[in-house]
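FAQ: What does a multi-protein file look like?

Like this. Sequence, then tokens, then the next protein.
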Amino acid sequence: MAAIEWKIATFPVPYPEAVEAMERRVAAIRKGDGREMAWLLEHPPIFTAGASARKEELIAAGAFPVYATGRGGRHTYHGPGQRVVYVMLDIRRRDPDIRAYVRNLEEWLIKTLARFGLSAERRQGRVGIWVVRGQGDAPAGLRHAEAASAAQAGEYKIAAIGVRVRQGVSYHGVSINVDPDLDHYAGIVPCGIKEFGVTSMADLGIAATMAEVDEALKACFEEVFGIETVVV
């Protein structure tokens, strides 16, 4: 099948602008008038609320703008230092199995992080991609009680997944914490999970640039999905 467009934004994209652009592209793909795309970007600091979001999990409602979104999941944070990738694929033509699509997204993140020496994993019943740290080694960005709980558990979320499929075309996508301000996560219960913390590549001692992460994402996307990408 045809290669997809691989687009990298050079400046933070406001969330409403990104959603509007995605909606236009998804409609064009569905009609056969637009090319499938993976769009790599950063957002200004925001919280987003997925379809299953609960009000009580938005702890600091006034900290950043909050946007309701049609993706799955609950509350999450986006901001500078986090690589967001919105993936718009016509899965009707490629593989209509949505569970298989999500599993491929997970595998893509796992393989990307492995290129930087990180052993990242899925967890049954928990959305996202996780890493294990040593006992008592809690990252920044957690309230005291949560930090203690996370340190005991030893598992931290490093990448998130939230997708939507409309009439056979996927959008929204994934994010990797490269070097965001982890303190910003204290304003929400990330994805509704209180018992575990959030970390980043930088917090784990990986001094990767965003360009290096993008290069790894591109190579691993082609490997996992078997789809050629064209940089625009």
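And here is the next protein:
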Amino acid sequence: MVKVNAYLNFDGNCRDAVEYYSKVFGVPAQIMTFGEAPMDKGEEMPEAMKSRIMHANLVLGENQLMFSDTMPGMDFIVGNNISLSINGTDAEAMTAWFTALAADGTVQMPLAPTFWGPMYGMLVDRFGICWQFNLETA
């Protein structure tokens, strides 16, 4: 099964947005800051990053709205702060789609294992659309 969800980015005010949308839609928010995320040994995070939101989501029926803050200094343009997140369990299909979109695009994060799942990657396609690929365990 494959789902496509909207992923909204903010520049330091993600928590405010998630809490607002949580109230609007009447659903609880799940929020993780960069400071709460596991770090590799010896890796340090700037203090300004720790309170920013790494990932948050609201479950609306069978769909999700997902959110995060950008990293300090990262380009942020209101109106261009949305990407499409492909979530599925078929590694072969996800890899093929990622590779096809990356061929004429720009890979921001190659497909690789993460602490939350077996594979994740980000890219911008040739039309300027931001994509995230997240392989979920079956």
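Q: Is there any per-entry metadata?
A: Some entries carry free-text notes. For the entry above: The chain has a mean pLDDT of 88.
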